[in-house]
Design goal:
Layout lengths: L1 H9 L4 E3 L7 H10 L4 E3 L6 H12 L5 H13 L4 E3 L7 H7 L4 E5 L4 H15 L18 H12 L21 H18 L5 E4 L5 H8 L16 H43 L1
Helix pairs in contact: 1-4, 3-4, 3-7, 6-8, 6-10
Length: 277
């Protein structure tokens, strides 16, 4: 089939970044792209339906191999050769079974505490897109199909080898002490290190730059500096959160204004009709 042909063309998935989100995965995405890979970070929106199916079945207690295979086939068919962070890191073992020679990079932070702080900022931002509409919080995001799908995918994260309840990693931490997230970070990292052959694994902090990464991948060091992405750092996420809030509270007055203008036109039209009839 077409997916198999594409797999043969690009070699399939050659690199797995098994690190959790908020561990430098965006910077690594940019670095891998510079090294010639096509990087799959988080979720390609065009694949959201397949990820939603996988997530829904898995969180209902019925994980299916065909759902994982369908997602991987889509990723490879679209030419991606490296996958990074959740939800791919949740199924890193399944990807390794499909591509046993794939190299695995475990991205890490300077400390669990750094990870916890960054994780909280991300999901305090994303949760805005999940809240239902109310007049006190008139969010329209819940009416958009893609945001509904991404919510289900986020509830899937942490349910595989961490064996957490759906949503615990991305939402449930708010009812738990900080040690909970730090524990999950360390458990995940240990799981990867325990299940990936040592020669196939690089534990990597993006602060280390090109040296260890290029040596591990067998690539020449580029002339460009190692990229340190600012696209989704803490400052950018806080700005995004504020943008979401502005959008949520600004569209209702616009809608009311349009409604009032429409009503005015209807009244005027009615008056004109009465005048000439």
């Amino acid at each position: 089939d077409k997916a198999t042909i594409r797999m043969a063309d690009n070699g399939g998935i050659q690199v797995i970044c098994a690190g959790l989100g908020r561990t430098g995965t965006m910077s690594l995405t940019d670095a891998l792209n510079l090294l010639g890979y096509k990087s799959y970070h988080y979720v390609d929106p065009s694949h959201a339906t397949d990820w939603e199916t996988l997530a829904t079945m898995a969180t209902s207690g019925v994980p299916r191999e065909e759902d994982v295979k369908r997602v991987l086939d889509r990723i490879v068919k679209d030419g991606y050769t490296a996958v990074l962070e959740n939800p791919c890191s949740d199924i890193y073992q399944e990807i390794l079974r499909e591509y046993p020679n794939t190299k695995v990079i475990l991205t890490v932070r300077d400390s669990p505490e750094k990870f916890v702080a960054s994780w909280k900022v991300l999901f305090d931002t994303m949760v805005i897109t999940e809240q239902p509409f109310s007049w006190s919080f008139p969010s329209f995001f819940g009416w958009i199909g893609l945001f509904q799908q991404l919510k289900k995918i986020r509830y899937f994260m942490g349910t595989t080898h961490l064996k957490l309840e759906p949503g615990a990693l991305t939402h449930g931490w708010r009812e738990k002490p900080d040690e909970f997230l730090a524990e999950q970070y360390e458990k995940h990292n240990k799981h990867v290190q325990d299940h990936v052959p040592e020669k196939q694994l690089l534990v990597f902090n993006v602060k280390q730059g090109w040296g260890p990464l290029c040596e591990f991948l067998g690539k020449d060091v580029p002339s460009k500096p190692f990229p340190h992405s600012k696209v989704n750092d803490t400052r950018s996420l806080l700005k995004l959160k504020r943008t979401f809030e502005i959008l949520i509270y600004s569209w209702v007055p616009v809608l009311v204004g349009l409604g009032a203008a429409s009503a005015g036109l209807l009244v005027r039209e009615s008056m004109l009709r009465n005048r000439y009839h």
